[in-house]
Design goal:
There is one protein chain. The protein has 262 residues and is of the alpha+beta class. The protein is 29% helix and 21% strand. The chain is built from eight helices and ten strands. The strands form three sheets. The chain has a five-stranded antiparallel beta sheet. The protein has a three-stranded antiparallel beta sheet with strand order 6-9-8, with no helix packed on it. It is globular and about 60 Å long.
Length: 262
């Protein structure tokens, strides 16, 4: 239980465990998407991935998460860090955080109930709501994201908007092997909210670029690429490939995935 990659990697190298929960990922993701810190915090996180490399494991096996039974739910953090923000904005930030969890190196781990908009009451014991109708008053007075239900209701709703969003992410994750197993490289970050971009590649024929905008303002990006054609597989089609650059614009709190033919 540590946000320090040096401490975490000790268990996968000296301890010879194949993987650990990546608490460092959770902390830095929260910093960027809930507390509006620069996206260079994510670049710094991934710069330590080499610490996990040994004869039988590496950072690609780490378990990414944004909520769990120890740290509580990301939705609770968003409620605390952005008390004046609309629920729509908080859901966008929540979905963006989970997109990074899916499409960055590592294995995505969804904490049950996140896909139903559960917010919890912070910490460990405050984030263990029932998905079947609950009789616990401290849970049942919580506002759930994306629904009028409370935890006093049955919450196995596959039509919930967050469930539907996660389903789209999962479909992409399974349809494109490079987004699961591809080598990752950070290609852009900045010292304020805005653009963060990484590439994933599994072979010499194609390369994927996952581009995030953590800002509440539209953001432009221009990435150096080697491809000769591009395809949007998720997000806005607002990008142009010309003269070795992929240039485009992202709406506030959004992301896009581009596949480049090399």
């Amino acid at each position: 239980y540590s946000g320090d990659p040096k401490a975490l990697s000790y268990y996968t190298t000296e301890g010879d465990m194949p993987s650990v929960l990546d608490f460092a990922f959770q902390y830095r993701t929260k910093d960027v998407f809930a507390y509006d810190k620069g996206t260079d915090n994510l670049a710094d996180l991934f710069s330590h991935d080499k610490l996990y490399q040994d004869h039988n494991s590496d950072a690609s096996l780490l378990m990414n998460f944004v909520s769990n039974h120890d740290v509580g739910r990301l939705a609770y953090t968003l409620d605390q860090s952005l008390p004046e923000a609309s629920e729509v904005e908080k859901i966008k930030r929540f979905n963006l955080s989970n997109a990074l969890m899916f499409f960055a190196r590592g294995v995505p781990v969804i904490y049950y109930g996140d896909e139903q908009g559960f917010t919890g009451d912070g910490g460990d014991r405050g984030a263990r709501e029932d998905m079947m109708p609950s009789t616990t008053p401290s849970y049942n007075d919580n506002n759930l994201y994306g629904t009028n239900k409370t935890t006093a209701d049955d919450n196995f709703d596959q039509s919930h908007p967050i469930y539907q969003t996660f389903s789209k992410y999962a479909s992409l994750y399974h349809a494109h092997p490079a987004l699961r197993q591809g080598k990752q490289e950070v290609v852009y970050a900045q010292d304020k909210p805005g653009v963060f971009a990484l590439s994933r590649s599994l072979n010499a024929a194609e390369q994927y670029f996952v581009v995030f905008n953590s800002s509440t303002q539209a953001a432009e990006f221009s990435l150096n690429v080697k491809g000769n054609s591009s395809e949007v597989i998720f997000g806005e089609q607002n990008a142009v490939l010309a003269n070795g650059k992929l240039t485009g614009q992202l709406a506030p709190l959004s992301f896009a995935i581009y596949r480049m033919a090399l």
